Every structure is written in structure tokens, then in C-alpha cells.
Amino acid sequence: MTRKTKDQLSKSLYLLLQEYPFDNITVNQIINHSHISRTTFYRHFHNKQDVLTYFFHNDIVPQFFPSKTQDSYYTLAKQTILYSRKEKNFFKNALIDSQNTLIHLLINKYIQLMSTKLPKLTKTQYDVLSIYLNGTMITSIHWFLKDDEHSIPEMLYLFDLAMPDIIKSIFDKS
């Protein structure tokens, strides 16, 4: 029952994010939309941010980062961008919250995934990878939120141009 209730609440938040910015959504809206009591909500979550985090880990992560994939960085970056475009309303409304926790969740998960897909990294390589992935994720989000005129292949090409040699050599070996 716990998983079902959490899923119902997170689905309600997801549907509300199709229409409203995260900052404008209240716990009352989530519970009214899901037909779940306030007491039950607080038994499972502390606040609406917890619901968003739950949704991220259970619904977004499997879409962005398939667990058994052996795909290249290019393929993962393309999958991420295509999924973001498909879920445009959700991401536009979820990413404009004042705390931007979703951005940090995305970046940290992306760094974790990429570092596990690569051979053993030195501290310097890991730090450079982290800086590069932070930059590409923030750039992707700005590109996405502003409806930039660059196409997906153009953005992927720019990310490739910006990739430091130390990171390119790691990806070439994987």
C-alpha cells in the first residue's frame, strides 16, 4: 500500500506540473488531485519537494538512465534531451522552482552514472568529468527552458567540441 500511495501522490504532482510551475503547486492541490488525505500524505512525505524527489528516482531516472545500458555518452545525452523534449511541460514547470533541487538531482545522477560506465577514474579525471557534466547539464537546461534555436544534433556537436581532451580519452577507451 505504501508504494501505491506514494505512486499516486507522485503521479498527481506530475499531472499538476503539466500545467503549473512547481513553486505554485501546494500540498493541498496534490492531495485533492490524488484523493488522499493530508494525514496520509504526511505519513509518506514531508513536503512537496519529497514527492518530486520520489518521482525523480522512480520515474525519471529509469527513463533517462536505463540501468543495464552500455550506450555511449552521445547516446545517453541524446536520450536525455529527447525525453526532456517529450516531457516538456513537466520539465519546464519542475525546473523553474526557486530551490532547483531537480537540477541538482539530475546532475548528481548523471555524474554517478557516467563515472560508473567508465574505467577507473583518477581524482583529476573524476573532477574534470564532474565539471564538464555540470556545465553540459546546466547548458541543456537553459537551452531547453529558453527554446533555443539550436537543434539536438547541433547541441550534441557543441557538447562534443567542449569536451576536454582528458575526458575524450576516457570515453574513447570505454
Notes on the structure:
There is one protein chain. The protein has 174 residues and is mainly alpha-helical. It is built from ten helices and no strands. It has two domains: 63 residues, Orthogonal Bundle (Tetracycline Repressor, domain 2); 110 residues, no CATH class. Helix 1 crosses helix 4, helix 1 crosses helix 6 and helix 5 packs antiparallel against helix 9. The longest helix has 23 residues. The chain starts with a helix and ends with a helix. This is HTH tetR-type domain-containing protein. It holds the Pfam family TetR_N.
List keywords for this structure.
single chain; 174 residues; mainly alpha; Tetracycline Repressor, domain 2; 2 domains; 10 helices; 75% helix; 0% strand
Briefly note the structural class of the backbone: mainly alpha
Tell me the β content: under 5%
* Helix-strand string: HHHHHHHHHH
Helix content: over 70%
Number of separate strands: 0
Distance between the termini: 42 Å
Describe the protein's topology:
Blueprint (H helix, E strand, L loop, with lengths): L1 H16 L9 H8 L3 H7 L3 H17 L8 H14 L1 H8 L5 H17 L5 H23 L6 H11 L2 H9 L1
Helix pairs in contact: 1-2, 1-4, 1-6, 4-7, 5-9, 7-8
Protein name: HTH tetR-type domain-containing protein
Keywords: DNA-binding
Pfam family, one: TetR_N
